[in-house]
Amino acid sequence: xxxxxxxxxxxxxxxxxxxxxxxxxxxxxxxxxxxxxxxxxxxxxxxxxxxxxxxxxxxxxxxxxxxxxxxxxxxxxxxxxxxxxxxxxxxxxxxxxxxxxxxxxxxxxxxxxxxxxxxxxxxxxxxxxxxxxxxxxxxxxxxxxxxxxxxxxxxxxxxxxxxxxxxxxxxxxxxxxxxxxxxxxxxxxxxxxxxxxxxxxxxxxxxxxxxxxxxxxxxxxxxxxxxxxxxxxxxxxxxx
Length: 240
Prior knowledge:
38% helix, alpha/beta
């Protein structure tokens, strides 16, 4: 176990944001949290990161837990001239060789010398995650990492994330709206609507009545078919 939420609840303005949430993240987990707007997804992450204390319940952490977090919104001051390399090195006691090695590992060396303000949304996400990996975390937490990306950018990002998970001893917890991508990459899906409606492997979650109630029959059927088709593509695809 890396981190665990035990029966946590959060109430704001007499509204229950989170209700009786139990969640355990173990080594080598890849968990994606899905749910509608206002479901409490970001609040759950804040509680796990101890940015916010729940009104009830507790967070238990392993002694060797080392978390890196990529927030939902990262605003760049375009008036500050700074390259991706310089940004990664901010407040880091590391050498350029270390950054070059990890950048080669994930095929992003070509954007290290680009100005941070000139990066595309997908490139920026890759730089943010590369910076977080320098510390060798055992848990990577991502809040809506592809919310501003087009379909092509989403595909590139999820391949990048898949490569990180495959090649590193790391667990990933992600909040996402990209159900079609989630079905093909993640190991476990949690559907949240202030409480945990359902959870399980992607292969079974689309058949769960609570998933169908949350996202609709048509969408659940489409995801089941998409998952089946993507499985064949996934088995033969090249690494990024």
